[in-house]
Design a protein that fits this description.
two-stranded antiparallel ribbon; alpha+beta; Butyryl-Coa Dehydrogenase, subunit A, domain 1; 12 strands; Butyryl-CoA Dehydrogenase, subunit A, domain 2; homodimer
């Protein structure tokens, strides 16, 4: 049976990131390390025992659209009930709104098991968390009183309705309109696309968090406002709205998109206000929709990161079990004898070690970034700014590294399965399809690259980068003290220096007006930065596990060595590319 | 409309590889450059106008299995009729067996259009070519008289039935048995899996080329024999067998494999001799099955290479058209104004240029390798050995580079399409699924790596590598004479030297008994070798196009520059990894 996530790694992350210490912060005072662990245990159990067995079936039999309504697979409904009961949606929210007030780091680690078990089912809860959190953060009391309780419990679910057919990455170009109805609501009109969970039968109502433009609003991103647009609107607002009658709110399913992965979670084209009777309620101040949305974006992007890590992890464990079980061929140079398990072949071990290094690094980074989010929001006052700066810097990396490198891990899982991997009788191909979304949704990898290099590293005169540098240098000092293998430490130190130097040079290009020269290699910059950050994560794991004499520990050290020997040398090479190559900057589109 | 393959590139390859000159060889004396071009034109037309329009439908509606028989999509049947009529199956075979006696290089270029159009439909012909060619090369006259004519015309089709459930890459472990029936035939018993085209309704009969073990044969690869096992056997052998009655030959469909790509071409589990009445006819001498099969393997692997190039090419052209058409966002630093086509964004151009470099390099390499095959078989006597050595060396690279890097190109096509790329309403995801097979079938990438480093470069004391070196050095001299940009030439020269040096070092390790140390990084070696070979191909294209003043030429030069700046620097890095990294060689499987 696939463990989904290695429990030894989860336990090590607990120690390495000192998650238990978070209970000492006032915000988490009602908890202790034991209650953190209990939550992880509960999610692990549901992920493994309830969700994972439903995965193949719900992937193979996607939701159906009939008469404008979407029907989920019965196994998705059953799985979502379990997820709901865990209190996943409000896990990190305060007790005041029905939450468990857990640190995001703990929830992130716990949710890895759920996303690994069945990301479509757990995704319904994840989307609802994001939507509800926006209402909680910016909504007026009447909105909160009406929407929060049913959403936090999962009786109603939520969506993020941002994308329009001609405004995906470019939100400033969206055209959905909002007209003041004079009764506290707005009339919403427009079309949205790729709305995950936009309609289904797992909840009594779906609340769309819609970005729209109030009539007369400024052009571009400065004229976008955020609205709560329920699929069915309550007759009266207030704490018991969900128990009262609900009437249709003129939100219609315009089409079901045939996604290649996350197949059990419907992605829809929706139209709002076809009959001019779609009502939305403004959340927060007018024209503040984008900054509000982005205030939640860190969490959403960490969510993508941990999901990508989870999807790669499941594939790694499938491949590992297969490689131990499947016999084929013999050792190099051997004559005759029985066939050996394919894990005995060096190249199969290469693929497995690469996958492990990617998976462990991705999961560690996701939880580490979530911990900076906890410290930024709830840490000691004096540390918050610093934590926030590091969080901002790590977020685009957490969003993109597990997605991009995780995809490679998923490809390797198919390859290790050989011909069987190419068939849908085996699960790796489905995981591969799932993984591809993570480089696209919640901001493509290209968007993350621009965010990192064009915004995050230059913000505050490079303050975030300095803070991260200090943190990594401290980890290096700890590792040296613990006598960690210098072959792991020294290349990281060198690569870290290279990042600093390159960032300065690229920043200067930008300051000199050469924006293309600065940002044109943004994806290469993101990649090299990610390689360094993951090396740091491996170093932390190796340092913490140092004292253990176990196979698990030896595997971690070997992953760290592999990463140092294989990936860190790429940093200088990618940096040089960022500095000198202009091949595609000087490419005229007509030459293609 | 997707051009599938860039005609300007096809034309340039004609010139760059001097394909027309092949008509001067006695074997191709009935041809001239014009008839070569006519064949390419004819295939282009069928690929574009007949096959490509059928691709989405035949992918979406795969063959069905009912009552033990497989039914293809009607569009596949219609497409196959056109492919048959082109004479594709026997295109390279002699006129004596009904062929057109075209050079493999010309056929490879032409067939790129067909595989690009619909690889499942064209694949039926491709498989038949391989099977018929084996009978032609090794079969006795009676077998040839019976099977060749209907197979070469496509009235009967063929398969390669090698793989068994527990013997995929390790053919020496197959257990299908053959017992002399005393009447010139053998009774065949066994199970085969992943047999593409193993049953269908596009032909009157399917002839399986089956590897099996004659009773009492030696163990391992030295005891494998090759048999022709028709699905239905002719009552009498001879030239008119196909017109006479055919009776069932106890070959049964045991299952239809749900492949993730090439979905219109059924892949089957077959059982032979359930009722002990399956007859097969020995091809060539007993126990010579594997060497015979491998004599055809170069062609099959070049076929995989050009198919992978074609699949990446289609995706490239989809992405290019989309990037020109789709508007989203604005130039870096721009304030306001209309959205621009995404091709204006540097990172989209990066992805497109990378795809182009991979596609052009893959197609050029496939045709170039096929040309060495022509020279090895039909060139001037004095040149044959040398051509054969280079062919042997290039074959594993041609098999694996387009598959592995082509896959990356296919991933980029999905990424460029954004959210739309993640849906099956757009074609890139289907091409991505198709592409993945190419790193698995006809010998995985791992097998190619062992073939290159463990066999090809060390054969004859390194003679092949010396011959290839001289060829590349000659191309470098030509490029210098033509004043090609030194930024393209110098890094290739350096990387070529690195390959020679590394090969010597690894060979020494092997000679010293450290087989793991020599071969453990085989895939890295294969990758770096491939990067150099592709740089050589780009150099040849850039040299030939040098005199042209066209956008197409500028694009080629820019691809070559990109490759030199981005990929060639990886060679030294990968070489160092081959030399020093032992992370996974020293990895105990229990640490994972």
């Amino acid at each position: 049976m696939n463990p989904l996530i290695d429990d030894r790694l989860a336990e090590l992350l607990f120690r390495s990131l000192r998650l238990g210490d978070l209970a000492d912060l006032p915000a988490f005072a009602d908890h202790d390390p034991e209650t953190f662990r209990l939550y992880v245990d509960a999610c692990r159990k549901v992920g493994r025992q309830v969700l994972w067995p439903t995965y193949p079936t719900t992937d193979a039999e996607p939701p159906t659209l009939q008469d404008g309504r979407v029907t989920l697979h019965p196994e998705t409904l059953r799985g979502f009930e379990h997820v709901r009961e865990l209190g996943v949606i409000a896990a990190t929210r305060p007790e005041a709104v029905g939450g468990q007030q857990l640190p995001l780091a703990v929830a992130t680690l716990a949710h890895a098991y759920l996303m690994a078990g069945n990301l479509s089912t757990a995704g319904l809860a994840w989307l609802t968390t994001g939507a509800a959190h926006l209402i909680e953060a910016f909504g007026e009391d009447a909105l909160k009183a009406t929407f929060l309780a049913p959403m936090m419990s999962g009786r109603w679910t939520g969506t993020m309705a941002l994308t329009e057919p001609h405004a995906g990455s470019s939100l400033g170009d969206l055209t959905t309109s909002a007209t003041d109805a004079g009764d506290g609501s707005y009339r919403i009109r427009g079309a949205k696309i790729f709305i995950s969970g936009g309609d289904h039968d797992a909840s009594e109502n779906v609340v769309h968090l819609v970005l729209a433009r109030i009539e007369g609003a400024p052009d571009g991103v400065k004229g976008i406002s955020l609205f709560a647009v329920p699929q069915r609107r309550p007759a009266a607002f207030g704490p018991n709205a969900a128990d009262g009658p609900l009437e249709p709110n003129d939100v219609h399913v315009a089409g079901l998109i045939h996604k290649i992965g996350w197949r059990a979670l419907p992605s829809l084209a929706l139209s709002f206000g076809d009959e001019d009777d779609c009502r939305g309620w403004l959340i927060g101040a007018p024209h503040r929709g984008l900054p509000q949305m982005f205030q939640m974006m860190n969490e959403a992007r960490i969510g993508v990161g941990v999901t990508a890590a989870a999807t790669a992890s499941v594939a790694y464990h499938e491949a590992l079990a297969y490689a131990r079980d499947r016999t084929q061929g013999r050792a190099l140079g051997a004559k005759g004898g029985d066939q050996v398990a394919i894990i005995e072949h060096p190249d199969v071990r290469r693929m497995l070690l690469r996958m492990k290094a990617i998976v462990d690094g991705s999961l560690a980074l996701s939880v580490a970034t979530a911990r900076f989010s906890d410290l930024a929001a709830n840490g000691p006052e004096a540390e918050r700014d610093r934590a926030h700066a590091i969080l901002d810097l790590l977020t685009p990396i957490t969003k993109s590294f597990p997605a991009e490198f995780g995809y490679e891990a998923n490809v390797l899982a198919v390859q290790i399965h050989g011909g069987y991997g190419y068939s849908s009788e085996y699960v790796p191909e489905a995981l591969l399809r799932d993984q591809k979304l993570n480089s696209i949704h919640e901001g493509t990898t290209q968007i993350q690259a621009l965010d990192l290099l064009g915004r995050k590293v230059v913000a505050g005169g490079g303050a975030a980068l300095r803070a991260l540098n200090e943190t990594i240098e401290a980890a290096i000092a700890d590792a040296r003290k613990a006598s960690v293998d210098e072959a792991i430490i020294a290349p990281l130190e060198a690569a870290l220096g290279e990042v600093g130097k390159l960032t300065m040079e690229l920043g200067m290009k930008g300051a000199g007006g050469d924006l293309d020269g600065m940002l044109g290699h943004g994806v290469d910059y993101l990649t090299l930065f990610s390689i360094v950050v993951i090396a740091w994560q491996h170093l932390c794991l190796a340092t913490t596990a140092r004292s253990e004499d176990s196979d698990f520990h030896r595997g971690l050290v070997q992953s760290a060595r592999y990463w140092a020997a294989t990936e860190l040398p790429r940093v200088a090479l990618l940096a040089e590319r960022c500095r000198v190559d202009r091949s595609y900057l000087e490419l005229d589109p007509s030459w293609l």
